[in-house]
Amino acid sequence: MNKVETSFLHKNQFGDDFLWGVSTAAFQIEGAPDTDGKGRSIWDVFTSQKGKIKNGHHALTACDFYNSYQNDIDLIRELNIPNFRFSISWPRIMPSGVSPINEAGIAYYNKIIDSLLSAGIEPWITLYHWDLPHDLELKGGWTNRESVSWFSAYVAVCVQHFGDRVKNWMVINEPSVFTGAGYFLGIHAPGKKGITNYLKAMHHVTLATTAGAKIIRNHIPDAHIGTTFSCTHIEPATSSSKDVEAAKRVDTLLNRTFIEPILGLGYPQADLPVLKKLNAYIVEDDLNNLSFDFDFIGLQCYTREVVKSSLLIPYIGAELISAEKRNVISTDMGWEVYPPALYQVLKKFNAYEGIRKIIITENGAAFPDTLKNGKVYDIKRTHYIQDHLEQILKAKKDGLAVDGYFVWTLTDNFEWAEGYNARFGLIHVDFDTQQRTIKHSGLWFKDFLS
Ligand code: NOJ
């Protein structure tokens, strides 16, 4: 294959220990929603409801990873990617969310882990990437305090069965996004709305994050334990004090609310007064159970947001000015392409004393790809990745800690409420035939990693 040279970046510039990988999530790739005894998840239910997903898309087949995982693992190896992040579907392991265990689900993930290891690829497991068992949602889902015990029991099963071979674990993926979109705005599963649902879910998810981490630590003493946060560089639209204050509130909501309790700093209530309402759900020992000494924190950064003050928006008093309104270059998600955001986010999180190690566990872009003569020339995605890697180098040069970079994502997949039109993959998928085509970005990454 021809070399795909489009930049002067070299892997060696990042250091020998720098971790390179690619990230995925079960619901976005697996399909097979009720095969081999799997239970329904909140996303199975949400996608079956009318009008929830763009173009009526669903994830009944998705990328068919459930059946074609071997082919995709071969592709990961072909791309020279040494680390693969995937999530476990809770309802595959425990169909109703609690015992009994579905042995076929355990067998499935055992096959994936063994196949990765025999291909020389290190498995990185995310325990929760948004697909809560539907039966638990019927009992209130994350708004029910019992969710902490349900999740703990599920984590114990996973570490018992996979912990002998898997050392890299991430407890919860992007809590601010799934609680915000799923329990406050109602635009993601389970489609709940309102401040009460949101705050209860927030507190229980935070407790579940540390409870899960402790279980991993107890079962696998040499585990490398992390959890992942979505983070966005926030800027005020103007230097007026109103906008600056509004930006501070949005920054608190999007970047600080979930990590600070985990670092032992408590909820940032002073900078976002609505969080004081959380006190109604905090009982007895909770404050002692909110923190955990993670080995690493996974940061997932795609863009920046520009914020102006707005009296119309409840609780936060702020509004995001869209990339479209600002007339800046954006992706198919409507997110501004702004690589310095990654540098800024690294700087921000490096300032927390309690963080031992930072890994970028997701970064990537959705662009409208076209398959022409068996090729996808997605130069915008290639540049997006390269420009973000330049920001990592700049951060390293400035002495900021950052130890790894995982691209989102391997193949085009089911992008939640956006369906299949937002393509993020290094590999193109024809969703009618399941045909895979490595894009230019994938070929570049392969060369870069060789
Ligand atoms: C964050 C989520 O973890 C992932 O599921 C999603 O597809 C990407 N970002 C892109 O939106």
Write a structural description.
By secondary structure, the protein is α/β, with parallel strands linked by helices. The model has no long low-confidence stretch (mean pLDDT 97). It starts with 18 loop residues before the first strand and ends with a helix. It is globular, with a radius of gyration of 21 Å. It has one domain: TIM Barrel (Alpha-Beta Barrel). An eight-stranded parallel β-sheet has the order 10-7-5-4-3-2-1-13. Helix 3 packs parallel to helix 5 and helix 7 packs parallel to helix 9. 51% of the residues are buried. Helices cover 36% and strands 16% of the residues. Bound molecules: 1-deoxynojirimycin (NOJ). 1-deoxynojirimycin (NOJ) binds next to loops.
- Integer count of domains: 1
At CATH level 2, the architecture is Alpha-Beta Barrel
CATH class: Alpha Beta
What ligands can be seen in this structure? 1-deoxynojirimycin
pLDDT averaged residue by residue: 97
Identify the strand order in the major beta sheet. Answer: 10-7-5-4-3-2-1-13
Poorly predicted runs: none
Q: Oligomerization state of this entry?
A: single chain
Break the fold down into its secondary structure elements and pairings:
Elements (H helix, E strand, L loop, with lengths): L18 E5 L2 H4 L12 H7 L16 H14 L4 E5 L2 H4 L9 H16 L3 E7 L5 H4 L9 H16 L5 E6 L1 H10 L10 H25 L4 E7 L2 E4 L4 H16 L2 H4 L33 E5 L3 E6 L8 E4 L1 H4 L13 H11 L7 E5 L8 E2 L2 E2 L2 H19 L6 E5 L18 E4 L4 E4 L1 H10 L1
Parallel strand pairs: 1-2, 1-13, 2-3, 3-4, 4-5, 5-7, 6-8, 7-10
Antiparallel strand pairs: 8-9, 11-12, 14-15
Helix pairs in contact: 3-5, 7-9, 8-9, 13-14, 14-15
The structure holds 1-deoxynojirimycin.
